[in-house]
Fold this sequence. Notes:
This protein has helices at about 15-20, 25-35, 45-60, 65-75, 85-90, 110-115, 120-125, 135-145, 260-270, 275-290, 305-310, 315-330, 365-375, 380-385, and strands at about 65, 95-100, 105, 145-160, 170-175, 185-190, 195, 205-215, 220-230, 290, 310-315, 335-340, 345-355, 360-365, 385, 390-395, 420-425, 435-445. It has about 450 residues and is α+β, with helices and mostly antiparallel strands. It has four domains: about 1-60, no CATH class; about 65-125, no CATH class; about 155-230 and about 410-445, Immunoglobulin-like (Sandwich), CATH 2.60.40; about 230-395, Roll (C8orf32 fold), CATH 3.10.620. The chain has a five-stranded antiparallel β-sheet. A hairpin with a 2-residue loop joins strand 2 (about 95-100) and strand 3 (about 105). The model has no long low-confidence stretch (mean pLDDT about 95).
Amino acid sequence: MLNILKDLRTEMPEDIAKLKYAGMFAEADRLIDIKLEDDRIPEAVRNKLLTEKEIMKRLENDYPYTEEEALALIRKEIPDFTEEELHEWMDRGAADWIFVSDKKHLQNRFFASLKKVYPEMAQRAQEAAEDRSYLDDNVRYMKQYGKAGWHFRAKTVLRIKDECFQPGFVRVHLPVPSVCINMRNIRILNTSPGGIIDPEDSLSRTVCFEKTLETNEEFYVEYEYDSVVRYTAFSDRETWIDPDAETGEQEPHIVFTPLIRSLCQHLSGDETDPLKLARRFYDFVTTKVVYSFMRQYLGIEQIPDYCISSLKGDCGVQALTFITLCRCAGIPARWQSGKFTAPGTSGNHDWAMFRIEPYGWLFADCSFGGSAFRAGCKERHDFYFGNLDPFRMAANQAFQQEFTISKKHWRIDPYDNQTGEAEYADRGLLRQELDCSFEILEMHQLEQEEL
């Protein structure tokens, strides 16, 4: 299905657009079916309409709360929270909403996003601030020793929810580490029966299972790996770029739109040194864009433009905006994603890489840099331009990649794979139909002589 995404930015017929933005999804879907019967429709418009059918199928689940329900949710933790305050957060764009059946509905993680980004909300909810001192400890360690590494053993499990299970054929993809600049000594230790393991250097590496089930069962993979990163200290030396390495566009998101070109030119000014240009792009994303949990990426027509115009986005939105600005300026840049795997915490995460000579490939984690900036930690903010911590599992080395064994129907995330995917013979399964888990079974820091 990835081939039709190239037409995601095609103009939607006006009558369908009106229905979609009013949240009248069933009526819009019915009208799309009528239009798809017209053989005069150009291929790009047909692809756009097919994609919109899938997007609208997901939107209502992504935005479940009416304003009254959202207010009740917040008051469970902040009893004196007012309706006026909710409207203020919505007006500021900090509490994301859309129309569903002509009523405003808020995004499923809007409250978690407010507590994560705005300390006053976390304090009122009596939620302890996240302790990230270990990241500062790592920065000092890497500056002292020049490199750092951790060994991890982890397990990913996917199971179809019992109420969504149907006997028959099922195809499952689970992400696993891919050999790359910061992943080494990867070993697949165990899988549920029938796992087909991708080559080590796959750009979006998975273990795939194809099985006919009579009863519901779980799919799992257990693996180990070393995450090793080196510290890059920049000097005043002249830098240059290789224009033939990953500087092109990739529809529908890595595209040099008028907004991207305008911002790239504005931020660049008269500067020509590629390292300084990349730093300007990083500073824009980390100091101007506010972190926010997002709806599914399939529901955003052009991710970097969305980020720049709304000045908000999560780790992937921020990474893709940085990548696109870099490429627009001729600086090679690419995607990397998988898991953040630190002591006591883990979760899905995306970040960026960019290449500038004589340093070679460098890292940029804009969301971690942005959180450091908001916390007033300049050293950590500087660190995540050019460097990365070792608390990572990188499964994806590029954005919007087909699996080695292709999925036949819509993926949960057509651009990335951090949690897992599943499909029946006749349709792809949605996120809410699956139970997925990721567990760190063992982790320890590697000694310098092991790196």
